[in-house]
Amino acid sequence: MSNAEAALIKAYLRTYTQAAVAREFGLSRSVVSHIATGKTYKNVEALDEVPPIEGLPRNNLDYSDRLDVEILVNRGMTPKEIAERLDLDRNAVMRVIGTVRFGSW
Predict the structure, then answer these.
(1) What is the span of the domain harbouring residue 16?
(2) Coil/strand/helix, residue 97
(3) pTM for the full model?
(4) Residue 82 counted as domain residue
């Protein structure tokens, strides 16, 4: 793998899960994990901007995503419905729901 590919992977890890990035690049999750943690390619910096990966739900949520999730939870939507509607990873939605329900958000 080239340094350019590792930089691209590091950039995508800001938005997508390690498992999703591994599937997209045809790598094992452990290889992507080693890149993410700096066990390999630690001197390679992530690219500043990368295009979104079509059809891949985002994992990292910003403040407006969290507000949207809260509104949809209050309307009675399921985590799966919310994730599909907002193009988010279902586990990311579940993390927000947990913080909304228990008041730590």
Answers:
(1) 3-37
(2) helix
(3) 0.68
(4) yes
- 18 closest CA partner among 9, 93, 42, 88: 9
Distance CA 81, CA 10 (A): 29
Burial of 71 (0-12, 13-18, 19+ CB in 10 A): exposed
Phi, psi of 96 (to 5 degrees): -65, -45
Q: What SS3 state is found at 88?
A: strand
Domain count, the chain: 2
> What are the tokens at 57?
């739900």
pLDDT digits (tens, 9 = 90+) for 6-38: 999 999 998 888 988 999 999 999 999 999 999
Q: Give residue 86's identity as a one-letter amino acid code.
A: L
Residues linked to residue 58 through DSSP beta bridges, in sequence order: 88
Q: Is residue 48 part of a domain?
A: no
CB atoms within 10 A of CB 29: 15
- Residue 44's alpha-carbon distances to 13, 35, 54, 64, in angstroms, are 14, 9, 25, 31
Task: Evaluate if residue 101 carries a pLDDT over 70.
Answer: no
